[in-house]
Specification:
about 240 residues, alpha/beta, 6 helices, globular, Pept_tRNA_hydro_sf
Length: about 240
C-alpha cells in the first residue's frame, strides 16, 4: 500500500533550471556503456517504480529516466544487470559519469537493486538520486530534496532500509491524489488519463533539466559521508507481496 504523508517540508530545494537544450550543449560529453576513469565517483540516478507496469503514475520515476536517457543519447543502450536486478545504462555529463537505473523488482523492493549497485560501484550515498512519484504534489509540480523520511512511499522506504541511510537526493514528481471514491492503491497503479498525458511531456522535460543542472553544480562540492554500507538485512516478508 502506498500511504502518502501529509507532511510539508519547508526545506524543499525548488530550482529554476536553465533551458535544457542550452544546458546539454554545454555539459554533455561522450557516452559509453562502461564506466570511464575520472577524478570523481559516478553518480547514480534511479527511477523508482514497477517495471512490469510502465506508464502508470507509480512508475513516473522510470518515465523520467527514459526521458533522461534520450536526452543523453543513450536510450538505445539499456542493458540488464543481473547482479543488480535492474536495467542500467552509463552516460557522461561533463566530468561526471552517470549510472542510470530502472530496478526490475516491485516498487517496495527497489532498494535491493540500489544497494547492490551501490556496493558494485562503491558509490557515495549522496551521489545517489532517487526519482519517484509524490501523492502530495499535484501533477506538474516537482521538487528536489536532500534526505528525510520516506513520507509513506514504500519504494523510498525500501531504499532507506537497504542503503542504511536517508541521505539520498530525491526528485519528487507530483501525481496528485485520487478522488474520494478511488483507493490510493488503484490510483497509483493506474495509467495517466488522456488529459494528464498532455501535461506529462513538459513535466519530464523540466525534471530532466533539474536533475542535470543539480548534478553538474554539485560535483566536487559535496562532502560525502563515504561509501554506502551495501545491502542491509532482508526486508520484512510483508513488503514482497505485490507491486505497491
Amino acid at each position: 500500500e502506498y500511504m502518502g504523508g501529509g507532511e510539508r517540508r519547508g526545506e524543499e530545494a525548488m530550482m529554476r533550471p536553465q533551458p535544457l537544450g542550452q544546458f546539454l550543449r554545454w555539459a554533455l560529453g561522450h557516452r559509453s556503456d562502461e564506466l570511464q576513469t575520472t577524478s570523481y565517483k559516478p553518480v547514480m540516478v534511479a527511477g523508482l517504480g514497477n517495471h512490469m507496469f510502465p506508464g502508470t503514475r507509480h512508475s513516473v520515476g522510470m518515465a523520467v529516466l527514459n526521458h533522461l536517457a534520450s536526452k543523453l543519447d543513450v536510450a538505445d543502450q539499456w542493458k540488464r544487470d543481473k547482479r543488480c536486478c535492474a536495467d542500467m545504462v552509463v552516460a557522461r555529463l561533463g566530468e561526471a559519469e552517470l549510472l542510470l537505473m530502472k530496478p526490475r523488482k516491485f516498487m517496495n523492493l527497489n532498494g535491493i537493486s540500489l544497494a547492490s549497485a551501490a556496493e558494485k560501484y562503491n558509490l557515495n550515498i549522496e551521489d545517489i538520486y532517487l526519482v519517484h512519484d509524490d501523492l502530495d504534489k499535484p501533477l506538474g509540480k516537482i521538487s528536489l530534496k536532500l534526505g528525510g523520511s520516506a513520507r509513506g512511499h514504500n519504494g523510498v522506504r525500501s531504499c532507506i532500509s537497504c542503503l542504511r541511510s536517508d541521505r539520498m537526493v530525491r526528485l519528487r514528481i507530483g501525481i496528485g491524489r485520487p478522488t474520494a471514491k478511488a483507493s490510493v492503491a488503484d490510483y497509483v497503479l493506474s495509467r495517466f488519463t488522456d488529459a494528464e498525458q498532455e501535461v506529462l511531456p513538459p513535466v519530464l522535460e523540466r525534471a530532466t533539466a533539474m536533475l542535470l543542472q543539480h548534478i553538474q553544480q554539485n560535483r566536487g562540492r559535496r562532502e560525502s559521508p563515504g561509501p554506502c554500507d551495501g545491502l542491509a538485512s532482508p526486508l520484512p516478508k510483508t513488503e514482497g507481496r505485490g507491486p505497491s
